[in-house]
Amino acid sequence: MPPRSSPTVRQQRLGAELRKLREASGMPAREAGALLGGNQAQISHLESGRWGISAERVRRLASFYSAGDSALIDALCDMAEERHKGWWEEYRGVLPQGFLDVAELEHHARRILSLQSLTIPGIFQTVDYARTIFGGALPPLPQTELDARVEQRVRRRILFDRATPPPFEGVINEAALRMGYGGRAVVRSQLAYLLEVAEWPSVTIRVLPFTTEEFIGSAQSVLYADGPVPQLDTVQLDSAYGPGFLDAEAQLSKYRAVFQAARRASLSPAASRELIHSIAKEM
After folding, report:
1. Most buried among 93, 103, 172, 193, by the most CB within 10 A?
2. Burial of 60 (C-beta count, 10 Å sphere; 0-12/13-18/19+)
3. Chain-centre distance for alpha carbon 164
């Protein structure tokens, strides 16, 4: 079987976690490959996500490495056994890989935290609002890709159609609520939808008001996704070049602290809804 040419972020993560286990054991890749009946190149392909791996082989490697965290090993086995293709795969070859990776991250998350400085969380954007955001891309997007980006963004919220959707907590800077993207009618409609979303049982929306006296140390859009075990948590950051993904413990710890600070500085959910309603009336 030829190696994957473009492994997904999730496939790369499985390989990276296997590499961490091997490196913690002190075993060279050459030796690990030999224990699997292969060579160093085989381990390299597995650890880069370019080759798939069975749950049985994950457990064999964990045994070779004397890895004792059974919860982590079970979670890695579950990742290895994933064979279904999610709805986002319909956009492969149509949209940049990062769009698919974000949807897959949300799909597997046990909980989602979102911190937004200048826009409404992507998963809750209306069609007109999302079209305005993507319509501002430089250089301008071809119409077919623009349409696909908007469609895929709106489809991400099928996550909340589940019987038990993952809890979602969003902290939104007041500036994002007041930005006039698309004009007053578009913003009014977007804020009305955000108020509707804020009433969903699994969703908590908080506003970071202009009156706060605290500085929250992130001007980026940040999404923090809880994995099945803390070691598999992931941070996703937006940038002009597409989404970036972080998973080192030092990085995860930093962004957990950022979210804790944002919660402390933000309004309660009820007061947040009142402020959103007030801003919508001003539009």
Report:
1. 172
2. middle
3. 18
Q: Can you give the pLDDT at residue 2?
A: 61
What is the number of residues in the chain? 283
Amino acid at 139: P
C-alpha closest to that of 114 among 252, 225, 246:
225
Q: Which residues contact 237 (CB under 8 A, 6 or more apart)?
A: 220, 221, 222, 223, 243, 244, 245, 246
Please tell me the distance from the alpha carbon of residue 218 to that of residue 118, in angstroms, as a whole number. Answer: 12
112 in helix, strand or coil?
A: strand
- To 5 degrees, how large is the angle CA 170–CA 103–CA 124? 40
Sign of the four-CA dihedral 118, 122, 128, 131: positive
Q: Domains along the chain?
A: 9-80 (1.10.260.40), 87-282 (3.30.870)
Assigned token pair, 52: 């798939």
Per DSSP bridges, beta strands 222-226 and 234-237 are: antiparallel
CB 109 within 8 A of CB 226: yes
Tell me which residue has tokens 């995860």.
Answer: 252
Q: What are the structure tokens assigned to 183, written together?
A: 């004009």
**How much is the pLDDT for 81?**
94
Beta strands 244-246 and 222-226 are unpaired
For 103, 184, 196, 277, the CA distances from 132, given in Å and listed in that order, are 20, 12, 21, 22
Q: 115 pairs with which residues across the strands?
A: 171, 222
Contact in structure between 177 and 207 (CB atoms under 8 Å): yes
Per-block average pLDDT, block size 10, for the chain (283 residues)?
79 96 96 90 93 94 95 97 92 95 97 96 98 94 97 97 97 97 97 98 97 78 96 91 90 95 95 98 89
Strands 234-237 and 168-173: unpaired
